[in-house]
Specification:
Cystatin domain-containing protein; alpha+beta; elongated; 7-stranded antiparallel beta sheet; Nuclear Transport Factor 2, Chain: A; MS5; about 140 residues
Length: about 140
């Protein structure tokens, strides 16, 4: 029987390196400045990636509408970061319009897991309401 493998030690922090909090994960400037586990997504020039983020945002806002009995409609992606794990974890900030109240626009933040076969919402919140995350319940096939 082979001896157990030794664990590699974690690499030391770089000068100025911080570990991101959940709020900071949604900040692309934070991800650029510090070596956080999240990386900014350059979706502006990639139509396939933009389409993927739009699908994630629409699923998330559908989840929010289902749980809160509201009628928000997706408008645009504001920014996004991602992490790679078993699947891609997208942290998306997007704008929605309230279909019941004219000219009311609200920004939302959502964490969506996306892999080759499925997409599911982990959590969503209104951007200004820091700390009040709603757990996601919806998922769909990709």
């Amino acid at each position: 029987m082979a001896p157990p493998r030794k664990k590699k030690p974690h690499p030391p922090r770089l000068p100025g390196q911080k570990f991101a909090t959940l709020d900071e994960i949604f900040d692309a400037n934070f991800a650029r400045k510090y070596r956080s586990p999240s990386k900014p997504v350059g979706f502006e020039k990639d139509p396939i990636l933009l389409d993927m983020l739009i699908k994630c945002a629409k699923l998330a806002i559908g989840d929010y509408n289902t749980q809160h009995h509201t009628d928000y409609r997706f408008v645009k992606i504001e920014m996004a970061t991602f992490q790679l794990a078993y699947s891609a974890i997208f942290h998306v900030t997007f704008e929605c319009r309230n279909a019941k109240i004219n000219d009311q626009y609200t920004s939302f933040q959502a964490t969506v897991y996306h892999n080759k076969h499925t997409r599911n919402v982990a959590r969503i919140r209104i951007k200004e309401e820091s700390g009040t995350w709603c757990p996601g319940i919806l998922w769909e096939l990709s």
